[in-house]
Each structure stands twice: as structure tokens, then as C-alpha cells.
Design a protein that fits this description.
Helix content is about 30%, strand content about 20%. The protein has about 500 residues and is of the alpha/beta class. It has two domains: about 10-90, Immunoglobulin-like (Sandwich), CATH 2.60.40; about 100-470, TIM Barrel, CATH 3.20.20.80. The strands form seven sheets. Strands 11-12-15-18-19-20-21-22 form an eight-stranded parallel barrel, surrounded by five helices. It has a four-stranded antiparallel sheet with strand order 1-2-6-5, with no helix packed on it. The longest helix is centred in the middle third of the chain and has 17 residues, at about 225-245.
Length: about 500
């Protein structure tokens, strides 16, 4: 029997009891809550216990206790016990929600911890209605899987099934999704399947999750040629769609998801997600000029960072690092015309392009209008980064809360080394990612909002809904202007003077 045809991994509720299922192919004995589990095929151990939802547990493998690799909740963090969760206890009022369509998708990326003063799922709810009024159709949550400590971007998640306790855990996430649907917004979940964060030995204790056949920049590569490891990722993706009513997934850095199997794990993942919900969207972040997600794996869309790089370099003049290949009007015109339009996600700012700068500084307000106009007038799927619509002045910096002192110090030093090749940042003090102040500086401050800029965004978002997809673009390199026409409307972007005009 293959792993796929078996039941879910993890602690699954069964009318007051719980079925525990865990992959531990190398273990001699596996027990939970004092009860030994039975070994089945494929290294899967299982058993049913009188353990109601809310029960805390660890698996004991040959005498050593570990949290569940498929834990649905880690209330005390990555080193605490797992907790059994019954998703049927979530209260939903979204039966009338019809889901997202790619044709109408307008994404608003946010980080739960810095989006509100509370830094929680519940803290985000009061702002949903104004996002819908602005013209947004979906919020995209940066990863919420449980990572070490309380503060972080989320891309170092260790327990991928468990909504972060500092944000409000499973119940808080369910409330946010339900409220978003009630406000007319979809929810896209940012998920990471290219590596796991510090503490990966807790997964490796159960079995060979990782491989040395490949390498990633962030950690050990995950071995997707093993059926149970594929299930660990695919069942996780399906869980967000099924149990939390999430409308789509954004897959992080899929160029670092290695799989030499006949069918790539991310192609199978897309199929399985659509079995849960045929309308669910799968969107990938991929390196520039690699279109495997939409051409081979059946994904709905993928990020197209070339558009951002051309706009950013034209506006700022920065040409260090990966910007050195960009900055021509002809290059931007080519990005305006790149197809398939709706399957390419473009932006002027996002968590990477802001937060991975040495100081996490955003585009200056005087440049935001031109950048926003280019993104929102383009026929592609646009993405906004939280706060840009009103000219947020606070930075979005790189922050962590690693609980291992050696990893914390390595992160500090690595962050400094990262910017040695950027001349613009030489001599600058890179903020300490471990400092709580770095996190606090990154929280949105709506008290200094530019209402005129917000109205400009609202106008552009309303305008684009009535425009045909087709676009005609011309450039004047000497005058540094780009003219784009969609239907009866013309955009004139003047990069020499950082101005923009809409002609009807």
C-alpha cells in the first residue's frame, strides 16, 4: 500500500479519540502517551488512543521524545509538546464565499506580526474591510508555520502544519480566514517546502527527510524522492485548503525544491490541492526566466521579478548586485508585453525587495506613484506590499528570534556579509536581526498615512478592472519616458522627473 492511499499523517481526531500516524522507518519502537504504536508498511507507525482534541503529546522514538513532524499546534514553541487539534471545532460563517479567480486577482502581501500593533491574526481583522474597499481581492500571509522564537519572517518554519502560537495558533488563523471571506477577500498562504528552519534534527530523528544530493542556500535539501516525505509536504498543502478554507498557496523559492522523480512533487501537489478545492490557486516564486511552474507543473501563476527589477533600477539608479542587469526602458517595455499576462505576478515592492535591503527601506514616497502606476496599469496580476498604498514610512527589516545562541550569532554575521558587495550600503550599520527593536521598527505606522496616495491607488485599482488585457508600449530612451496603452487609456511614465499621467 502506498503512503498516498493511507490516511493522514499526524494526530487526527476520531469522535473523541485520536489516531496517531507518524513516519519513522528507522525506529525500533515508537510510542505516544505511554502507548506503543504498531508498525505498518512504508515505515508508518499508528494507533488509536482515548485522547481528545487539546491533548498534548510527544512521540517517543527508541527512548527519546520528540514533537510530531506533522504537529497541528505547538503552543509552547518548537521545543514544547504537540497538541491535538480538531479542525471541525472551527466556527465558519463563509458558506456564501465563492472563492478567487485568477482574472480578478489583486494580492496584498502582509506579515502578521508587523501588520497590526497586536501582531496577531485577530489584530489583522479590523483592517480587512478597508483593503477590500481599496480594491484588493486577496491577502497573502507571509508564512505562519511555527518557527523558533516569537519574531521572524516565517521562512524558517520547522513545524509546517502548526500556525504560529505567537500569532494566535489554529483558532486565530481560522478566525482571520473567516473574517476575510466575510469582507469579500480571499486568503493566500505563503508556504515553504524548499527547506525547514533551525531544529531540523527534530524531523531527521524520525527518518531521512533530507538529502545531500542537492544543496539550498538556507538549509538541508528535502528528499522528495521518498514517498513519505512527499506526503509530508503535499498533505500540508491540502490541510491549509481543506481545514482552514484557504483559497490558494504561494510556494516559496521553488527553484530550490529538488525532485528527480518522474513527476515533480510540485506538480503532484497542485493536482492534490485541486482535489480538495478545484478553485484553489497555486502560485510559485521562481528564479527569473524559469517558467517550469506554469509551463510544466500546472501552477496557476508565478512571480515575475524582472518587472520589479526594471522599475526599481529605473527609478532609483541602483545597479549593484542583481540589479546590474536591469534599468532600461526597453527592458521594462518588454516586461509590460510579457505573456501570459494573468499568470505572471508583478510588484513594485514586496517582503523580499524591501526587507532584504540592508536597512529594509521602502521606496521613497516621491517614487511610489510611478512604480505603482506601472504595476497596476500592466496587464499582469499585481501584488502590493503592506503599507505601500498609503506611503508607509517605517522600514520592513530582517528580524529573527533564534533560540539557539550559535544560530543567532551566525545570522547576525551572515546578514552583515550579505551586503559587502553592495557599494550603496558599505559603512552602514546593518540592524541586528535578533534585536526586538528591529522587529518593532518594522511595524506599520498608519498615523502618517498619505490619503492622497491611497486615493491614487484606489483610482488605479478601479481603472484596471475595466481595461482590456492587451497592451501597446512605446519608449523614448532619451526623454526617459514610457507610454503604455490599454484600450482608450494611456499611461505616461516619466522616469526623468518621477511623474506619471493617465490620459483618457
Amino acid at each position: 500500500m502506498s503512503v498516498r492511499t493511507q490516511a493522514q499523517l499526524g494526530a487526527i481526531p476520531l469522535d473523541g479519540r485520536t489516531r496517531f500516524r507518524v513516519w519513522a522507518p528507522n525506529a525500533e519502537r515508537v510510542s505516544v502517551l505511554g502507548r506503543e504504536l504498531e508498525r505498518g508498511e512504508d515505515g508508518i507507525w499508528e494507533g488509536e488512543l482515548d485522547a481528545p482534541p487539546g491533548t498534548d503529546y510527544r512521540y517517543e522514538l527508541d527512548g527519546r521524545a520528540w514533537p510530531d513532524p506533522c504537529s497541528r499546534f505547538q503552543p509552547e514553541g518548537v521545543r514544547g509538546p504537540s497538541r491535538a487539534v480538531d479542525p471541525s471545532s472551527f466556527r465558519w460563517s463563509d458558506s456564501g464565499w465563492s472563492g478567487l479567480t485568477l482574472e480578478e486577482l489583486l494580492i496584498y502581501e502582509l506579515h502578521v506580526g508587523t501588520f497590526s500593533d497586536e501582531g496577531t491574526f485577530d489584530g489583522a481583522i479590523p483592517y480587512l474591510a478597508e483593503l477590500r474597499e481599496l480594491g484588493v481581492t486577496a491577502i497573502e500571509l507571509m508564512p505562519v508555520a511555527t518557527f523558533p522564537g516569537n519574531r521572524g519572517w516565517g521562512y524558517d518554519g520547522l513545524y509546517t502544519y502548526a500556525p504560529h502560537p505567537a500569532y494566535g495558533g489554529p483558532d486565530g488563523l481560522a478566525r482571520l480566514v473567516d473574517a476575510a471571506h466575510g469582507a469579500g477577500l480571499g486568503v493566500i498562504m505563503d508556504v515553504v517546502y524548499n527547506h525547514v528552519g533551525p531544529g531540523s534534527e527534530a524531523l531527521a530523528a524520525f527518518g531521512p527527510y533530507f538529502t545531500d544530493r542537492h544543496e539550498t542556500f538556507w538549509g538541508e535539501a528535502i528528499d522528495y524522492e521518498r514517498p513519505a516525505v512527499r506526503e509530508w509536504a503535499i498533505q500540508n498543502a491540502c490541510m491549509w485548503i481543506r481545514d482552514y478554507h484557504v483559497d490558494g498557496l504561494r510556494l516559496d523559492a521553488v527553484h530550490a525544491v529538488f525532485d528527480d522523480s518522474p513527476r515533480h512533487v510540485l506538480a503532484e501537489l497542485a493536482d492534490r490541492v485541486r482535489e480538495e478545492n478545484p478553485k484553489a490557486l497555486v502560485i510559485s516564486e521562481m528564479e527569473v526566466d524559469d517558467y517550469r511552474p506554469i509551463e510544466e507543473w500546472g501552477h496557476d501563476a508565478q512571480w515575475a521579478d524582472r518587472f520589479h527589477h526594471e522599475v526599481h533600477t529605473l527609478l532609483t539608479g541602483e545597479d549593484d548586485g542583481y540589479y546590474e542587469r536591469f534599468g532600461s526602458l526597453r527592458g521594462l517595455a518588454d516586461e509590460f508585453e510579457r505573456q501570459p499576462y494573468e499568470r505572471l505576478v508583478v510588484c513594485a515592492q514586496n517582503h523580499d525587495q524591501v526587507g532584504n535591503r540592508a536597512l529594509g527601506d521602502r521606496l521613497p514616497r516621491e517614487l511610489v506613484r510611478v512604480a505603482a502606476a506601472c504595476v497596476l496599469f500592466a496587464p499582469h496580476t499585481p501584488l502590493l506590499f503592506m503599507g505601500e498604498e498609503y506611503g508607509e514610512q517605517r522600514p520592513f527589516q530582517f528580524f529573527t528570534d533564534h533560540i539557539d545562541p550559535e544560530i543567532a550569532e551566525a545570522t547576525r554575521q551572515g546578514r552583515k556579509r550579505e551586503f559587502e558587495r553592495f557599494a550603496a550600503f558599505s559603512g552602514e550599520d546593518v540592524p541586528d536581526p535578533q534585536s526586538p527593536e528591529t522587529f518593532e521598527r518594522s511595524k506599520l505606522d498608519r498615523s502618517r498615512a498619505d490619503d492622497g496616495l491611497r486615493s491614487f491607488y484606489r483610482e488605479l485599482l478601479a481603472l484596471r478592472r475595466g481595461l482590456p488585457r492587451e497592451v501597446e508600449v512605446s519608449v523614448d530612451e532619451q526623454a526617459r519616458t514610457l507610454i503604455a496603452r490599454r484600450g482608450e487609456v494611456e499611461l505616461v511614465a516619466d522616469f526623468a522627473n518621477a511623474t506619471v499621467e493617465l490620459r483618457r
